[in-house]
Design brief:
Layout lengths: L4 H17 L2 H10 L7 H20 L3 H26 L2 H16 L3 H16 L4 H15 L7
Helix pairs in contact: 1-4, 2-4, 3-4
């Protein structure tokens, strides 16, 4: 004995509601964390395509209750996709990433600064001034002032 059409509609509606609710926790997490780095575009696109095919099938087979739920899930998937695009490119995490990259560029020495420091080292060697040698002499003097017998 086959189940009644009303029972099948209830089962289809429940399945559609559960599927539509699957993306809700992800939307809430996107809103709370303001980050979408862990969400795959491939997953979102494949999910939307699969849901679209399922929607067409259900629509033309007259499964009204189920195709409405699938349509809601398609809309929620598109919302997640839009939120990911926004957060990846214009959201707060995107700004932090671009600012940290910009800051690190400013902290790295430019070729002009590297040339200047190499030139200063070469010039100090030419005039007989070696910082390492001078530092060693200062350490020996401090050791002897403290009365150390092992000042090498």
């Amino acid at each position: 004995m086959a189940p009644s059409q009303a029972a099948l509609n209830v089962v289809g509606a429940l399945g559609g509601i559960v599927l539509a609710a699957c993306m809700t926790p992800q939307l809430v997490r996107l809103y709370k964390t303001r980050s979408a780095r862990d969400i795959s575009y491939i997953f979102l696109v494949l999910n939307a395509v699969g849901l679209s095919f399922t929607f067409v099938y259900l629509f033309y087979n007259g499964a009204t209750v189920t195709w409405i739920a699938i349509l809601v899930e398609i809309v929620v998937t598109l919302l997640v996709m839009s939120a990911k695009a926004y957060l990846d490119h214009w959201g707060p995490q995107a700004l932090v990433h671009s600012k940290s990259t910009e800051t690190s560029r400013h902290l790295m020495p430019s070729p002009e600064h590297e040339d200047a420091s190499l030139h200063a080292k070469a010039s100090s060697k030419e005039i007989g001034f070696d910082l390492e040698e001078q530092a060693g002499g200062v350490k020996k003097a401090a050791c002897s002032l403290q009365g150390g017998s092992d000042c090498s």
